[in-house]
Automatic annotation (TrEMBL):
Name this protein carries in UniProt: ATP-NAD kinase
Family statement drawn from the similarity comment of this UniProt entry: Belongs to the NAD kinase family.
SUPFAM superfamilies recorded: NAD kinase/diacylglycerol kinase-like
Listed Pfam families: NAD_kinase (PF01513), NAD_kinase_C (PF20143)
Keywords: Kinase, NAD, NADP, Transferase
PANTHER family recorded: NAD KINASE, NAD KINASE 2, CHLOROPLASTIC
Length: 475
């Protein structure tokens, strides 16, 4: 804690003043509008957070982004400029030939509190990582015009026409390379005007974050969870359009999909207190924390690769179909916090606080609050209440050897598997957040979702007292 406090205090002094000079591509990108540029303060030291371990890296003032291996930082993920040729692929539109990926657009992630601004770390591999906990708003600004977009939709053909509408707009009107999932790619082979559509194979799935500039989701919250699962490490910004039954995380409507996508590509937000140079605009984003979860088996050696999952909502350990209560030891590093005797226990992110956690009695937490929610599920104790832990906590849910039965674990409701006695799940904050593009600002969007989806604090308004105008003041 002392180390963290010293580091945060250190960020308040020694700033370097700089002006961003974007490399804009094409006439279309300049229609974002002309703004008078002002300077913005850059923190002279980059802070890296991995749970509670903080390292300070000194960055020269002349260096605008972090350099990786001596190469100019960009989000393309390559050690040399230009496109990347991927062998063993035959697109349907050309009949044969290798796939050539476009160079990924460079971006800034800007924190702003309305008075000052600083940037998140964007590595040369295209990986977003936390500079420090998300206590301020963020603004996404493209340094270059985005060129490549991944479009995901919910299962089924209910949104097929909207899907084609989005593909044609991005490919024909904006001239972008559009990537779709392999099973959708086969269906699109019947369309003759989609020569700009491409897909990926199994070997390329792990490198999508190096080429995709942003992700478009057509569906409900489940589509965003699916996007999170596709990118188990770094994930590009996600813009989502509501086409599901709830849509707590999806504040955009398909009715205005073209104008909303145009705002994402060219920017729609001007902050007078923190402008980023001439002809540059941005969009508000929320960096949604994920949890890094590792399954440790009792009999595996230290050198055995551990099963790793990144979850956006929650990780749940429960009793499954067993007739007995689950017995789970909860550790924070080397300290035993408590022993759970309940149907189960969950560790949720602030984003997941409005999902399973709130249904189990947990609090609703704003997604920018740096925290891990510890929520019991039907505990056999009147005093076992949900708690909120700091984001740097490193937790372990262990099945003790004297437990009556094994337990089960699932990650965002998927990859469900059994935990034998002695097995455990280790959980900590991931350094790879999910950046979701907001409709307006984070807090305004969040409260709008509470009201729209949950009817939060919806009741008949209390009427005022009816005063009678009398000379003695009585009523």
């Amino acid at each position: 804690m002392m180390e963290r406090a010293q580091l945060l205090n250190r960020s308040a002094v020694g700033h370097a003043t700089f002006r961003l000079s974007p490399r804009l591509v094409g006439h279309n990108y300049r229609k974002a509008g002309h703004r008078k540029g002002v300077t913005c303060e850059q923190e002279s030291q980059d802070m890296k957070v991995h749970s509670s371990k903080l390292d300070v890296v000194t960055i020269p003032e002349t260096q605008r982004l972090e350099r990786d291996g001596g190469h100019t930082a960009s989000s393309s993920g390559m050690d040399y400029p230009g496109a990347v040729t991927v062998p063993d692929f035959t697109p349907f539109r050309n009949g044969k030939g290798p796939r050539t990926w476009p160079k990924k657009a460079e971006i800034y992630i800007v924190r702003t509190d309305g008075m000052s601004c600083s940037r998140e770390t964007v590595r040369a591999s295209g990986c977003l990582s936390f500079a420090h906990p998300s206590t301020q708003q963020q603004l996404l600004v493209w340094r270059e015009r985005p060129r490549c977009v991944l479009v995901l939709k919910k299962l089924g053909d209910e949104q097929w026409e909207s899907y084609l509408r989005v593909l044609r707009y991005l490919g024909k009107e904006e001239g972008m390379r559009v990537i779709v999932e392999p099973h959708e790619y086969l269906k699109l082979s019947e369309q003759t005007d989609l020569d700009f559509v491409d897909t990926y194979n199994h070997d390329e799935a792990g490198r999508l974050h190096q080429h995709v500039d942003f992700v478009v989701c057509l569906g409900g919250d489940g589509t965003i969870l699916h996007a999170s699962s596709l990118f188990q490490r770094a994930i590009p910004p996600v813009v989502s359009f509501s086409a599901g039954s709830l849509g707590f995380l999806t504040n955009l409507s398909l009715k205005n999909v073209e104008s909303d996508l145009r705002a994402v590509i060219y920017g729609c937000e001007d902050l007078d207190q923190c402008s980023l140079g001439e002809e540059m605009r941005g969009v508000h984003i929320t960096l949604r924390m994920r949890l890094e979860c590792r399954i440790v088996r009792q009999r595996q050696s230290d050198n055995t690769p551990q099963e790793l999952y990144e979850v956006l909502n929650e990780v749940v350990v429960d009793r499954g179909a067993n007739p007995y209560l689950a017995k789970i030891e909860c550790w924070e590093r080397d300290t035993l916090i408590t022993k759970v005797q309940a149907d189960g226990v969950m560790l949720a992110t602030p984003t997941g606080s409005t999902a399973y956690s709130v249904a189990a009695g947990g609090s609703m937490v704003h997604p920018n609050v740096p925290a891990i929610l510890f929520t019991p599920i039907c505990p056999h104790s009147l005093s076992f209440r949900p708690v909120v832990l700091p984001d740097y906590a490193e937790l372990e849910l262990r099945i003790p050897g004297d437990a009556r039965c094994p337990a089960w674990v699932c990650f965002d409701g998927k990859q469900r598997q059994e935990l034998q006695r002695g097995d455990s799940v280790r959980v900590r904050m991931s350094t790879n957040p999910v950046p979701t593009i907001s409709k307006t600002a984070q807090t305004r969007d969040w409260f709008a979702s509470l009201e729209r989806c949950f009817g939060w604090n919806d009741r008949a308004e209390q009427k005022p007292l009816g005063y009678i105008n009398r000379s003695d003041g009585a009523f």
